[in-house]
Write a structure and sequence with these properties.
The protein is an alpha/beta fold. The protein is built from ten helices and 13 strands. The N terminus and C terminus are likely disordered. The protein binds guanosine-5'-triphosphate and magnesium ion. Guanosine-5'-triphosphate binds next to α6.
Length: 372
């Protein structure tokens, strides 16, 4: 018999009549808490960020077929096989503690499935091949030193909308730094170009223009600036990254035939709605353009943490700064006009940006909030 609750009646009070329900709930709760506590005691807590990047030797599994991991779910993964078909697979115990990510090349073996269990994944991932590249960002605290974005990519295209959602300052520099760290080609993609006047030259991009960073302006809705991207995609794996609602999935749809990806509108605040929830590896078939290529659509990000990255990378992002500033940016006062005059910087606001990244790279305190 199902029992109806009266308005204002607390669940707990009702559960007192059914102690077994109450105790069952409590035990799942306590299990969840216990699991959380155990997680804190893993090697990750020991501040060993390098351990997360090491992969087990795939040598014993080289006789098994290879596939690409195209999407990760919490319990299973989708693999794209050599014949381009998609197979759902679970993760084998051999990979315990290994963090697989979209784009990984893996070896899988079929698992015997009873007839009644036809809905369960038919294969198991048992090994992961060495990665050609790994795009990652810093994690939020020491329990999670890195957040992996994509493996085996060639290029990172950071997407920024001319309006809605607004670009958070520093995002472009952060993305450039992550691309440098992973060894990826970096490009800036300006989306929703139809929403701003053609006279608007987007002066905020000048520092990047001067550095020779490629900047492409597109309007996926009007189809402008989309065709030239096809030739850049040829035989390349390109990760699209940007705030939620900048139009990453819309751009992917404009470049691809095949089933359309879900796209979302904007909230009344002009921000995205987190429509895409997991990174997705999307190979283009050759009919869709010369040489195919692969796009990786990702969920919208708020920021890109650079915690734990090498400070030497800053010299490659902030090219215009003299060595003495790059060695110790905090020795200079970004609010002091005399200092700025002496340094003779074309874009003084970049000094603050440099200082912020410098500080963030160092800090590895547990539970530290990185959203400065
Ligand atoms: N005017 C205009 N609107 C666009 C353009 N591209 C995308 N949009 C709109 O922007 C909104 C968000 O697009 P999405 O493609 O879902 O954005 P996203 O970056 O994939 O967002 P997340 O999946 O949440 O990260 C949709 O309402 C699109 O119609 C464009 O070129 N011009
Ligand atoms: Mg999307």
């Amino acid at each position: 018999m199902t029992r109806k609750f009266r308005l204002g009646q607390s669940r707990e009070a009702q559960d007192l009549d059914h102690r077994e329900v109450y105790s069952r709930e409590r035990s799942t709760d306590s299990k969840r808490r216990q699991r959380g506590a155990e997680r804190l005691e893993t090697g990750i807590e020991a501040h060993d960020a390098q351990a997360l990047l090491r992969l087990p030797d795939p040598a014993p599994w080289m006789h098994l077929p290879e596939a690409t991991l195209i999407q990760r779910f919490s319990q299973w993964v989708d693999l794209e096989l050599a014949d381009r078909s998609v197979l759902r697979a679970t993760l084998g115990g051999k990979l315990k503690g290994v963090h697989l990510v979209c784009g990984d090349r893996v070896r899988y073996s079929p698992i015997p499935i009873e007839a009644t269990d036809a809905k369960r994944p038919q294969a198991q991932v048992v090994a992961v091949m060495p990665r050609r590249s790994l795009l990652k960002r810093g994690g939020s605290d020491d329990r999670e030193p890195w957040q992996f974005i994509c493996a085996n990519a060639d290029e990172l295209w950071i997407c920024a909308a001319v309006v809605d959602p607004p670009l958070r300052s520093g995002l472009l520099e952060r993305a450039q730094l992550l691309a440098l760290d992973a060894g990826l080609t970096f490009r800036v993609l300006i989306t929703k170009r139809d929403r701003a006047s053609v006279k608007d030259t987007l002066p905020e991009l000048d520092p990047l223009r001067e550095q020779g960073v490629a900047i492409h302006e597109t309007s996926a809705l009007k189809g402008e600036g989309v065709e030239p991207l096809r030739s850049l995609l040829r035989d390349r794996v390109v990760v699209l990254l940007g705030h939620s609602g900048v139009g990453k999935s819309t751009l992917v749809n404009a470049l691809r035939l095949g089933p359309e990806l879900k796209t979302g509108g904007l909230t009344k605040f002009g921000t995205g709605k987190q429509t895409t929830t997991a990174a997705r590896w999307l190979p283009l078939v050759p009919e869709e353009g010369p040489g195919g290529g692969t796009l990786v659509d990702t969920p919208g990000i708020r920021t890109l943490s650079v915690r734990g990255f090498d400070r030497a990378l800053l010299a490659k992002v902030f090219l215009e700064f003299p060595t003495q500033v790059l060695e110790d940016p905090l020795a200079f006062d970004a609010g002091d006009d005399d200092t700025l005059d002496r340094l003779n910087l074309a874009y003084p606001e970049r000094l603050q940006s440099l200082q912020r990244l410098w500080l963030e790279m160092d800090a590895r305190n547990p539970n530290q909030n990185v959203w400065k």
